[in-house]
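Priority: medium. Attachment 1 of 2:
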């Protein structure tokens, strides 16, 4: 991982969740390279959300989906805001 100020090791899978961000993650060993290759291949079939109108909102469960943002260098006016909501877990039948 490289967070811009420090570099450190972090697992792609931990606490029952996956993490994959090719922008700041680099594989450190052969097992990590296999995981990286798997996620890069899966990325090819990802669903892209296209922003077509001002003030659009995308809501997702950060713990249930693997997500990423595309490079926004071409749109420097783009603004991202992160909100967190705590909800009670509902039993599914």
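Attachment 2 of 2:
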């Amino acid at each position: 991982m490289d967070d811009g100020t420090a570099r450190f090791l972090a697992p792609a899978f931990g606490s029952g969740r996956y993490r994959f961000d090719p922008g700041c993650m680099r594989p450190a060993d052969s097992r990590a390279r296999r995981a990286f290759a798997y996620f890069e291949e899966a990325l090819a079939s990802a669903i892209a959300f296209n922003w077509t109108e001002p003030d659009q909102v995308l809501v997702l469960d950060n713990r249930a989906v693997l997500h990423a943002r595309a490079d926004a260098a071409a749109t420097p006016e783009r603004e991202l805001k992160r909100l967190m909501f705590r909800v009670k877990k509902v039993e599914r039948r």
